[in-house]
Amino acid sequence: MDLDAPFQLDYTHRVRFTRGVFDPDNRTLTSLLEPTTDSVARACVYIDAGVSEAWPGLAGAITTLFDVHPALSLEAPPLVVPGGEGIKNDPAQLEAILRSVNEAHLCRRSYAFAIGGGAVLDTVGYAAAIAHRGIRLVRLPTTTLSQDDSGVGVKNGVNAFGKKNFLGVFTPPWAVINDTDFLMTLSDRDWRAGFSEAVKVALVKDAAFFDAIERAAPAIAERDMTAAEPVIARSAELHVRHITEGGDPYEITHARPLDFGHWSAHKLEQLSGFEIRHGEAVAIGVALDSVYSSLAGHVGAPQAERAVGCLRSLGFTLDHPLLDHPGLTEGLEEFREHLGGRLTVALLRDIGEAFDAHEIDPALVARSIEYLRAMG
Ligand SMILES: NC(=O)c1ccc[n+]([C@@H]2O[C@H](COP(=O)([O-])OP(=O)(O)OC[C@H]3O[C@@H](n4cnc5c(N)ncnc54)[C@H](O)[C@@H]3O)[C@@H](O)[C@H]2O)c1
Ligand SMILES: [Zn+2]
What we know:
The chain is of the alpha/beta class and 376 residues long. Helix content is 45%, strand content 16%. The chain has helices at 49-54, 58-68, 86-89, 91-103, 118-130, 144-148, 188-193, 195-205, 207-221, 225-245, 262-271, 278-295, 301-313, 330-339, 362-374; strands spanning 15-18, 41-48, 72-74, 79-81, 111-116, 136-141, 155-160, 163-170, 175-179, 345-350, 353-357. The strands form three sheets. Strands 1, 2, 3, 4, 5, 6 and 9 form a seven-stranded parallel beta sheet that branches. Bound molecules: nicotinamide-adenine-dinucleotide (NAD) and zinc ion. Nicotinamide-adenine-dinucleotide binds next to helix 1, helix 5, helix 6, helix 7 and helix 12. Zinc ion is lined by residues 149, 197, 262, 278, 282.
């Protein structure tokens, strides 16, 4: 028998913006949970160590919220896990999270709450996706990057064999709650980092949004929350809409406009031993591929200059000694291998419009780096 039986899965991507998510009278979180049994939503909580340090009362506030809410049950004290890329590089951290899920007897209808930056969300998300073949993940992103990009995505994973996200799965979270209060305690580096993803998605999808970021950039660089909030929200929305309406949520086809600037970014992160933040590397990668698009004749020089100028006014440094590393263009082959099939790199045709290129000329990459440096 030959049987081809197509089927679809129904998901709803639930993304909320709020402030003070753990205040007892904030209903955002509780309204998103369904009871695990007849009366109680059972959960474990994982907190990024950087967040826990900046918000010393957080674990207590969460415990109190669970205590006062009869429909919630915290199955173990909140577990503080290391923040930053280190957690994705250390298999012992993944195992510790899985062990806690096991010891708390969470089931497939229970919840894992992940509170932290993209690295913690990726790791807890991966553990949640593979434990019992998937328990419910509620992400509470605490960095600009995780609020405007990674936290609202459907990817989870950790690094292995020195390669980013070598182990991972596509699994939508049960819900995502962006609490902007968390952003106040970020370092300047981590505050800035996320806005490169907003510039990226604007450049490939939305010219008017790019104009808005350009206008807001100097205020964002000064950490003006009023200027930053709408940029984070629109970037998150564009990422969500790409996933839910773009027709390819699990990235089965070649086209990956949201990976604009990422082939070199991933390689720079890796070559630097993850000293360069993902968002910082994306800023360099986006600048590089904007200039490349221009030198290859796909987009005008003024558009490429605006892309570079916008990243600069957000405060990014777009040069790095590792741009001279001979291994940089190996990033193209690793990008192709990770994504499968033929090389597909998004380039710009205009601000707000990308297309897929299947060849990248290493000599032109080298000229683009020189050009980027000459722009000062
Ligand atoms: N899954 C995806 O689709 C996807 C997309 C893009 C990026 N990513 C991944 O996300 C990771 C980068 O995430 P990131 O930029 O959020 O940084 P991060 O997770 O590396 O965190 C950076 C630092 O900020 C600290 N921190 C986090 N929130 C804080 C807060 N509110 N106050 C004070 N300190 C805080 C952390 O402890 C850490 O030291 C990378 O691993 C990247 O590959 C994943
Ligand atoms: Zn990215």
